[in-house]
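Changelog entry: the Recombinase family protein record was regenerated in this release. Current contents:
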Amino acid sequence: MEVKKDTKRRVIAYSRFSTKRQEHGDSLERQHAAALRWCTQKGLELDTELTFSDHGRSGFKGHNSKKGALRVLVDMCKEGQIQTGSYILFEAFDRMTRMPIIEAQNLFTELLSTGVVVVTLNNGKEWRHKNLRNISDFLFSVLDLFRGNQESERKSAMLRSAFRAARESGDKWKFASLPGWIGKEGGKKDGAFVVKEELAESVVKVFDLAALGFTSKDIAIRANAENWPIPARLQQTEAWTANMPRRLLLNRAVLGEHEHKQYYNEIEDDEGDVEVEYLSRGKSTGIVVKDYYPRIISDELWAASRVGIKVRGAAPKRDYNKLNFWSGMIFCGTCGAAMHRRQDIKKSGDSIKGTMYCSAKKDGRSNCKPMAMRKFDTTVLSAITTFAASELGNHVGQSSLNEEAEALATLLADAVLRRANVMQAIEKMGFSDAFHERYEALEKEVKELEAKLTATREEAAFAASGSMLDTSFLESVLPHIYSLDSESADIRAALFLKLNRLVDSIIVFPYDLAVVYFRGESHRLTVPLPHKSHVPKPQHKQAELFSTGSVEHAAIKRPVYQSSRFR
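Regenerated C-alpha cells:
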C-alpha cells in the first residue's frame, strides 16, 4: 500500500510526562504554553491536526521512543507522512529521552536524518542534521542528552538512599501504603497504626476457614452469603472474588510483617516531572521488618491455614457442602479405580442419601458394584476411630512440637545473624572467594531451617486441634455428617483434615469389607461392611485375600494422579 506523502510543512509539538498522577498537574499545560510562545515569536502556527503526547510513559526507560507516540512520530517522518523541513518542538531534550547517551544520541540522529527540524524550547535552539557536522553543536547535543540521563540516575539514587535511611531508622511514615485492615490513628499522616476491627474480623474468618480446608472460592461464597466487609485499602468491587481470600492467605502483613518495596513513583525533577515508571505492586527489596504492623493472626493459625491449603490440594474437587469427607481416599477393591460419591439431597427435612460408585463403571470400563454411603460411613468411621485410639496413639504431642519449633527458631535467628555479618564483612573488606563460599553456605542453612520450622509449626498447629480421631470427636461429628447447614459443613471439613492426615487409602469391596491403610504406618485395618440385605453373602474372592493379608496394598492398581497427594 502506497504511503501518502505530506506536502505541507508543519509545526508539531510533542509532550510527555511519566506517570498518570501528572495528569492532575501542570506539566502538559506548561509544555503546550512553551510551544505557543515559540510559534508567536517565529510568526508560525502550531499544527492542531497532528498532536503527539506520551502520558505516563518513561523517557528514562525509553518507553516513549519504543512503543509510544514518539515512535509513531519518528516513523511518520521516516515514511514522508510529515514533510521535510517541518518543525518538531520539544520543551527540552529530556522530554524526548532520558535514556543512556548512546541510545539517546541514536534516537536524536534518527529523527534529524528524516529532514525535519528539532527545536528545544528551553534554549530556543533549532537542530538540523547538518548541525551534527559541527563539532561544537554535536558535543552540545551529546552533553545535554547525557545530562538528562544523569539527572534521572542521580535522583533515583537519592530516592533509594532516602528510603534506605528510612528503613534503617525504622521510620514508618515514609511508606504510605497500608494493608486494608490497618489505619492511622485520627486519620493523621503520622498517626500510630490501628486495627480496623470489622475488617480484621473478615481476615480472621478467611484464615479460620482455610485452616478447615476450605478453598478460596468456598471462602468467597461464604463471605458473600454472610456479607463480610471486604478488607481492601481501595475497594474496587462490592462482592468477594476467589482471588481475595487467596491473596490474604499469602499476605504476611497479617503476622505484623512488612516487606519494603520500591515503587519508583517519587522521583521528580525541578518541574515536578516523574521520570521512572510506576510499579503498582512494587519491586521487592528483600527487606522484611517484623512487628511493623499490629498482628491480627497468630503463628498457630497461620500454620494451620498452611496445613489446610496443602490438604485441600489433595482433593480439589470436594463439594462446597463438604459432604464427601473421604475425598481422594477410597478405591474400588475390584478394579483399583477411585470411588466417587453421588449425593441425593432432598430439601424436605434435609434428608441426604447417596451412593458410592466406581469411577471406572461410570466410564463404562467395569461393572463394579456400588454401595450406599450411609452403610459405609458410620461403620468405617467408628472402626478407624477405635483402632487409631488403641493402636496408633498420638506419637508426638503439641508441646513437644512447640519446643522443637522454638529450638529451630533460635537456630534460624543465629544463622540469619551470621549471614548478615558475612555480608557486612563483604561490604567493608571487599569480595573474596572465601566470603562467597561462606555466604552461600549460610544462605543454604537459612533456607533449610526455614523449611523445617514451617513444617514443624504446621504439625504443631494440627496437633493443637487433636490430630488423632477419638471417641468424643466422633460423637460430636456423627450428627452433622448429613446436615446441610454451614456449621455442619465446617465440622465435616475438620473431619476431612483429620482423616486425610491419618488415612492413606481405603480399599472398598461394597457390602463386603473395607481395608484401611494408614499413613507412615505398617498397620492395616480390615472392616466388615454391612450387607445389602439381612442375609449374609459369600465374601468376594479378592476381599478374602485382602482380609487374610495374602494380597499386598501395592497389588491394587491405583490412578497415577494419586502419587502426588499431600503427605
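The CA atoms of residues 341 and 356 lie 4 Å apart.
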